[in-house]
Design brief:
Blueprint (H helix, E strand, L loop, with lengths): L9 E6 L8 E4 L11 H15 L4 E8 L7 H4 L9 E2 L17 E9 L8 E2 L10 E6 L2 E6 L18 H4 L6 E3 L17 E5 L6 H12 L8 E2 L20 E6 L11 H22 L1 H4 L13 H10 L4 E6 L10 H20 L3 E8 L12 H4 L2 E3 L14 H11 L4 H8 E2 L12 E5 L1 H13 L10 E7 L19 H8 L39 H10 L6
Parallel strand pairs: 1-5, 10-14, 10-15, 12-13, 13-14, 16-18
Antiparallel strand pairs: 1-2, 3-4, 3-5, 6-11, 7-8, 8-9, 17-18
């Protein structure tokens, strides 16, 4: 007889008609946040687990059998199902019998061979006549969306260079686009508090499109769009409610709108930053005026600024997703003093709002500018961002992999597209890959699509003479050591970080390191520039050994 139980016991689950030795261990206690987990919860979690750890074409079905006799793994695959052993989806897992043999198979789930290119589940999709139906093609951990054709037109389409609005792209009949929505979860939905993710890539690698995918997903006005659930998107149960989908207001800042000149005075640089922040605040309040209500009324005679818009959202009970595009653009060819002004008047208030919780999540993207990126010398910036540029976590979030190009060609009917891209590939001077020893080639999205559009327009014509830039990124996507900022030994705690952003240094500590640039004060123009800083003092081996010995470090 089945009885409710609460003790920690594990049950082994296997798949019917499944080759190999795949087993899922059911731990009821791991279903955090679910008061009474059921068979349906088991199926969902095992499906995600299977997609990550077993790279076959099998999909887990909804039927679950509970044999009276525990099975050996070899017998589970050929188990003969009986109706009386079938459990309903709402059956509580707590009512399962305690296992006799913890290593035997206790539950058997149905499975189906999909062939690897069948439509997959989509997140938050409500089909309507305004948006064409979507089919997903997948290959390994990559996928392509193919939107349905109009009844009168069966010509596939590809995104243009101006196509960066993801929600609008999901309304274009016949469009074929590479799926990057898998990078929404779990990579950018993990609870890294108080740090702004930063990603740099060369121009043309679809950084703005990635921002649009994220903002569409998190936007409280949630414009309808397609989001895939692919094998890489295994989200642990305790994180399922942390992604804030459709719950945030979007604050969008495009630093390309900051226009600096070599001959600008200090006051003119300040004025340009203030004009930029007023435009950002005005656009934000205008977009969400219905939700902000009375809080949308400006508190200043000159109208809203970034700061007043953030507070209007806060008073209305909303938190913000911060989307910063082209953050390196203003500093490519201007004096470094402009960088200090932007750091003081723009970046420091933003990171302060992140620390204090008014901004919940965000992403900042820009072009790769070599070994030193903007704001790298600011102490408050170092402790307020999580630089994912050379991490494995988002290595292929921008640009196209070989698998994605192969799928793009198949879905759009372009034979041999990957071979053409490889023949046209060339390196780029805009990318530093010196630290990458075992890498994966990622191709420029803009270049690949330009070549593909030419091939689509003239399938039997000569080979297009379009060079395709490529960069090398880390290929081990599972290793997140380079991006796990919360594991760093010198991460500031919340109190220290808040003090840093307000312009006062954190409490002194004998192990703290000197910043290359002082924390910004009231007058940013008084801060030293990189060029006039004294070089760091060089320590001899003898001095290092003496300091170690003085601090009680045993020397071998």
């Amino acid at each position: 007889m089945d009885t409710d139980q609460t003790e920690d016991v594990y049950r082994q689950c296997a798949l019917l008609n499944h080759d190999g030795d795949y087993v899922y261990t059911l731990d009821i206690a791991a279903f955090e946040g679910i008061a009474q987990p059921t068979i349906a919860d088991l199926v969902e979690d095992m499906s995600r687990h299977h997609d990550v750890f077993c790279h076959c074409r099998t999909r887990i079905g909804e039927r679950v059998w509970y044999p009276k006799q525990e099975l050996l793994l070899e017998a589970a695959s050929t188990y003969q199902p009986v109706d009386e052993a079938l459990l309903p989806p709402n059956y509580p897992l707590s009512r399962l019998r305690p296992p006799v043999d913890p290593f035997a198979i206790h539950l058997v789930l149905s499975s189906e061979d999909t062939g690897g290119c069948e439509p997959r589940s989509l997140l938050r999709v409500q089909q309507d006549a305004r948006r064409p139906a979507c089919t997903i093609y997948e290959r390994n951990s990559s996928a392509v969306f193919k939107l349905a054709f109009e009844p009168s037109d069966s010509t596939p389409r590809l995104p243009s260079d101006r196509s960066i609005d993801y929600a609008k792209m999901c309304t274009i009949w016949g469009l074929v686009l590479v799926d990057k929505t898998r990078f929404v979860l779990p990579q950018l939905s993990q609870p890294y508090r108080h740090r702004l993710p930063v990603l740099r890539r060369p121009s043309g690698f679809a950084k703005s499109t990635l921002l649009s995918i994220l903002t569409t997903y998190f936007d409280v006005d949630h414009p309808p769009a397609y989001y895939s659930s692919l094998p890489r998107d295994y989200v642990p149960l305790h994180m399922r409610d942390m992604d804030a989908a459709g719950q945030l207001m979007i604050m969008h800042l495009d630093f390309a709108d900051l226009q600096f000149r070599h001959d600008m005075t200090r006051d003119e640089v300040h004025d340009e930053c203030d004009t930029f922040l007023r435009a950002v605040g005005r656009d934000f309040v205008s977009r969400y005026s219905n939700r902000l209500g009375l809080n949308a009324a400006p508190v200043l005679a000159s109208g809203h600024t970034y700061a007043s818009a953030i507070w209007a959202a806060h008073r209305s009970g909303y938190k913000v997703f911060l989307a910063i595009d082209n953050y390196t653009a203003p500093f490519v060819d201007v004096p470094s003093q402009a960088e200090y002004v932007v750091g003081l008047r723009v970046m420091r208030p933003i990171l302060k709002d992140l620390v204090e919780g008014r901004i919940l999540r965000g992403l900042m993207v820009g072009a790769d500018v070599g070994t030193r990126a903007p704001f790298d010398d600011f102490d408050f910036y170092e402790h307020g961002i999580n630089d994912l540029t050379h991490s494995r976590e988002l290595a292929t979030a921008c640009g196209l992999t070989a698998d994605e190009i192969q799928l793009l060609g198949e879905a759009a009917g372009i034979e041999g597209l990957l071979d053409d891209v490889r023949s046209a590939s060339t390196g780029t001077d805009d990318w530093d890959n010196a630290s990458i020893t075992h890498g994966l080639h990622v191709y420029c999205t803009r270049d690949v699509l330009a070549l593909a559009r030419d091939r689509l327009a003239c399938p039997s014509g000569p080979m297009p003479t379009i060079p395709v830039r490529t960069i090398l990124v880390h290929s081990d996507m599972a290793d997140q050591d380079m991006s796990d900022a919360d594991g760093s030994d010198d991460t500031l705690n919340e109190e220290d970080l808040s003090a840093t952003l307000q312009g006062s240094p954190p409490p002194c500590d004998s192990k703290s390191k000197d910043s290359s640039v002082p924390i910004l004060g009231d007058d940013v123009m008084d801060a030293p520039t990189v060029s006039n800083l004294d070089p760091p003092e060089e320590w001899s081996i003898e001095r290092i050994l003496a300091v170690l010995q003085d601090n009680g470090v045993p020397l071998i």
